[in-house]
Amino acid sequence: MTTIGFIGSGKIGSALARLAVAQGYDVVVSNSRAPETLAELVAELGSRATAARAADAAAAADVAVVSIPAKNIGQVDPEPLAAKIVLETNNYYFERDGRIAAIDEERTTVSALLQEHLPTSRVVKAFNHISFAHIPTQGLPSGSEGRRALAIASDFDDAKQWARDFIDRAGFDAVDAGPLANSWRIERDSPGYGRRLTAPQLEAALAEAVRSAVHP
Known about the structure:
- The longest helix is centred in the last third of the chain and has 14 residues, at 157-170.
- The chain has an 8-stranded mixed sheet, sandwiched between helices.
- The protein is of the alpha/beta class.
- Strand 7 (149-154), helix 7 (157-170) and strand 8 form a beta-alpha-beta unit.
- The protein has a single domain, classed as Rossmann fold, CATH 3.40.50.
- It has helices at residues 11-22, 39-45, 54-60, 94-97, 101-104, 110-117, 157-170, 199-208; strands at 3-7, 26-30, 49-51, 63-66, 85-88, 122-125, 149-154, 173-176.
């Protein structure tokens, strides 16, 4: 049985942990505080869930989810995530994270920063442009008219495939946004960010994105 370890179990992380349990995964959740602070979430998730410190959640994971503020990327321990697929949901909000020059100067992206920090992991961006409240409520069966699409980006095909399958089982279509260098196309202030769009609409929104308009 595959175990998904969560580094960050806030609103998005918790929503994805619920999806993971519903899909039959075991989960290990963590946050920046202590495992005891996640007792309510673990009780809700049931017997497939445990809480641990971030390093232990990463070590237990076959696949990891990193869902933290962009300013904290450097705090993630690369060693227990080596050679693993890492799904990341992170966004850059300068009001919270402070200014990150490499992003502001369009030299990198949030996702690429995490990949650089985790050099042997296979990072895939997903679930960063949907509200946590919509994750459990907007999913539809495959082939449904008006099914919402979510973008993925990665430099690794197997990471994309894992995310694509997870997203499909969650009730959404997956749209390939390309490598991590292109992940800015679905970040804050982009045409596709936060909007309920079908796959063709999301593909158009990704194409319409202008980098200078993202993270002003």
